[in-house]
TrEMBL record:
Protein's UniProt name: Helicase-associated domain-containing protein
Protein's cellular compartments: Nucleus
Any one annotated GO CC term: spliceosomal complex
Keywords: ATP-binding, Nucleotide-binding, Nucleus
Cited PANTHER family: ATP-DEPENDENT RNA HELICASE, PRE-MRNA-SPLICING FACTOR ATP-DEPENDENT RNA HELICASE DHX32-RELATED
Main subcellular localisation: nucleus
Residues in Helicase-associated domain copies: 421-512
InterPro entries: DEAD-box_helicase_OB_fold, HA2_WH, Helicase-assoc_dom, P-loop_NTPase
Length: 742
């Protein structure tokens, strides 16, 4: 910082007035009362306060508050072990210098939001859920007394749909801005405009170099606080040419252990598979191995026994920001690579790629130990908005009535090809009208916290009287996988247990069976649902998440007054209706077995893929045969190019009529009888919807489904939410696309 700022700090909080400064924060007297609950501070409060005063952030406390009073936006370094976010939030709430509303702090991880809220509530000597709270997907722990709230970045973004200028908040703190999540990038763009509309609003951005330099250039003249860690990390680089990162990392663990130096070890692998394989070696090494699936508080509570005095935490990129509180960690082994899912808009699929970590990520890990060579790493972490499917983002921006991307000042603008694919997808889902604005269907879809395809399928289930079943499918697909990785030697037993839930119609129906069985286990008197999940090799926490997600989706449908049909799973008509509802959203994800051996040709991508081994048509294909046509939920470009969550037995002509005009439709027409397909399509255009019958095409009511699912015709049971149209939904005009992207 400049000398001017340093002099300002001395004027605000001089060393000679230390006691006065302490009194202003409410801890100068042993009998001082907590201003929030009126009770005397506990001894733990003073113990934590003493620890906080040793952190680097305490030295710039007054400088930070002065910068925030005199500027709308402040950029601060977000390095580990600086004590930044918890202390700054707490001190700002305790300070009386600036009070213009609630303080909110965003996190990229739901677990971090909860952990930080608990930590700060402890430091402020208050109860969680009162003065300090948190809001994460499916859980809210706040009250009317809350003055400091932690939340995930996507939850704050969703609040903007009802409160576009975030008027409930006086201070907004964006933590981990360098993570470049889609939600954080959108917030950074929208907050720039909100600051112009609300001069009293204050924004704090926390990031690590070199992203802080990019923030400075994006926001121009804003103050940047300077913080240094208590002690610099020593970086030791390995120059081995071995491309196998797994076993060299484990050998380093043993070498560190032989040195007899104190301290735990963190190993960053490229993927969760590495942490799982490493954990299986736990009986062979003289240390306590803690796989990355264990949360930080749980992992830290696993104290080493007398024989194994050192803990080794096995982590991935997703856990690199979770170790800021692990004071016992003195060593970090960083492989310097990561496996990522990168979305390819041309083929509408994710690709699993192995790539080096960024310099930002290396700097994060360097706070504990050294990364790989700086020159070998890209300077910045690629923003997720360039590597993800941005259809949900475009739907949100349309709902916010943003006429074009020029109104949202992104740090990195989305790729034009990805944007065009997102607009095309929303158009095919009937979420856009002919002018490129949200249709009435699109407005309802934006209210449902699901991807656009699943939201459209859930809406269609209202017409087909299978809402209860679609709620279960949507919840199970939104939650983490319910299938646990079986222990070594138990793979066959786990497969036998999972096979009991398999449904002959496909994986979506298998998920319904699992969820219904889980709900039944909760009503049993002689065993718990946890024990039931353990017996069947199912993840109890994932099923509880699905249960909470289903409850939230049910509340959403009730709020917007959509009908919820009674469950009737198992009947023939219900099974067919579920497929029809799924086709409403996933009609572009169709594949055909071209050779009878499981090599599926994906129409939209023109790629070859196989059904995933965990699918009911994967491992059991030798018994029940492979279906010729499938609709899949997810497809990933990887070593095996697998399709996940598939269902079958829908007539090919049904696929044909649900596809919008495209190359995929031409391919399907070539696969079928061209003359019969063309004749059936012409007949559908000539016959009014209300007078269609079963003659000619041989598919009965499916011609009517095409009109409902893709044309945006009125759905009478939706209580007046839908509009009416007599023509097929036309592709979005090129002019409207161009005007929105400019």
């Amino acid at each position: 910082m400049s000398d001017e700022n340093n002099s300002a700090e001395s004027d605000i909080c001089p060393e000679s007035e230390e006691c006065a400064a302490e009194d202003s924060f409410g801890f100068g007297d042993d009998l001082e009362l907590n201003r929030f609950d009126g009770l005397p501070f506990s001894s733990r409060y003073y113990k934590l306060l003493k620890e906080r005063k040793t952190l680097p952030v305490w030295r710039v406390r007054c400088e930070f508050e002065d910068a925030l009073v005199n500027n709308q936006l402040v950029i601060c370094p977000g390095l580990q072990r600086l004590g930044g976010i918890p202390q700054w939030c707490a001190e700002f709430c305790l300070s009386a210098q600036y009070q213009h509303g609630m303080v909110v702090c965003t996190q990229t991880s739901r677990q971090q939001a909860v952990d930080l809220a608990l930590r700060v509530a402890d430091e402020m000597d208050v109860n969680i859920g009162h003065e300090v709270g948190y809001t994460i997907p499916l859980e809210t722990c706040c009250s009317s007394d809350t003055v400091l709230r932690y939340c995930t970045d996507d939850m704050l973004l969703r609040e903007m749909m009802s409160d576009p200028f975030l008027e409930h908040y006086g201070v907004i703190i964006i933590d981990q801005a360098h993570e470049r999540t889609v939600s954080t990038d959108i917030l950074l763009g929208l907050l720039k405009d909100i600051l112009l509309q609300r001069p009293e609003l204050r924004v704090v951005l926390l990031a690590i170099p070199p992203f802080t330099n990019k923030l400075l250039s994006h926001y121009h003249s804003v103050p940047l606080l300077s913080l240094e860690p208590l002690s610099p990390a020593e970086a030791v680089h390995s120059h081995s040419g071995n491309k196998d990162y797994f076993f060299p990392a484990l050998r380093l663990v043993l070498e560190i252990h032989r040195t007899k130096e104190e301290g735990d070890v963190v190993v960053f692998f490229a993927s969760a598979e590495g942490t799982r394989l490493g954990a299986e070696l736990g009986r062979m090494v003289p240390v306590v191995l803690c796989p990355g699936r264990v949360g930080l508080p749980t992992a830290l509570s696993n104290q080493p026994d007398s024989k194994k005095s050192r803990r080794v935490f096995l982590s991935t990129t997703q856990g690199e920001d979770m170790w800021w509180a692990a004071e016992s960690v003195n060593f970090v082994i960083d492989t310097g690579v990561q496996k990522k899912m990168v979305y390819n808009p041309r083929i509408r699929a994710n690709s699993e790629v192995l790539q080096p970590i960024s310099q930002c990520q290396a700097d994060i890990r360097k706070q504990l130990s050294g990364p790989t060579e700086d020159s070998e790493l890209p300077a910045e972490k690629a923003p997720q908005i360039l590597e993800s499917n941005i259809s949900p983002t475009v739907l949100f921006l349309k709902r916010m009535e943003i006429a074009g991307l020029g109104q949202c000042d992104f740090i990195d603008r989305p790729d034009p090809e990805g944007l065009m694919q997102a607009l095309e997808e929303l158009d095919y889902l009937a979420a856009l009208d002919d002018d490129g604005n949200l249709s009435e269907i699109g407005i309802i879809m934006s209210e449902i916290p699901l991807d656009p395809q699943m939201a459209k399928a859930l809406l269609a289930s209202c017409e087909f009287d299978c809402v209860s079943e679609m709620l279960t499918i949507a919840a199970m697909l939104s939650a983490p996988s319910c299938f646990m990785e079986p222990p070594t030697g138990m793979t066959h037993e786990a497969a036998q247990c999972h096979r009991k839930f398999q449904h002959p119609e496909g994986d979506h129906f298998t998920l319904i069976n699992i969820y219904n069985a889980f709900k039944q286990s909760q009503r049993e008197q002689y065993f718990t649902s946890q024990k039931w999940c353990q017996d069947y090799f199912l993840d109890h926490s994932a099923l509880k998440t699905a249960e909470a997600t289903r409850s939230e989706l049910t509340d959403t449908l009730n709020r917007i007054e959509l009908p919820i049909s009674e469950p009737c799973f198992g009947t023939k008509s219900n099974t067919h209706n579920i497929k029809r509802a799924l086709m409403a959203g996933f009609f572009m994800q169709i594949a055909r077995d071209v050779d009878g051996s499981g090599n599926y040709f994906i129409l939209t991508h023109k790629h070859m893929a196989q059904v995933h081994p965990l699918s009911c048509y994967g491992a059991q294909s030798h018994k029940q045969g492979l279906p010729e046509w499938v609709v899949f939920h997810e497809y990933t470009l990887s070593e095996n190019n697998c399709m996940r969550t598939v269902y079958i037995q829908m007539a090919p002509l049904y696929f044909f009529y649900n596809l919008p005009p495209s190359e995929s439709k031409d391919i399907l027409q070539d696969m079928l009888d061209p003359d019969a397909s063309r004749k059936c399509e012409e007949k559908q255009k000539d016959i009014p919807v209300s007078n269609q019958d079963d003659s000619g095409c041989g598919i009965g009511p499916q011609t009517y489904d095409r009109c409902i699912l893709s044309a945006g015709i009125s759905i009478t049971v939706l209580n007046g939410f839908m509009g009416t149209s007599s023509n097929d939904h036309l592709p979005l005009k090129h002019e409207s696309v161009s005007s929105w992207t400019e």
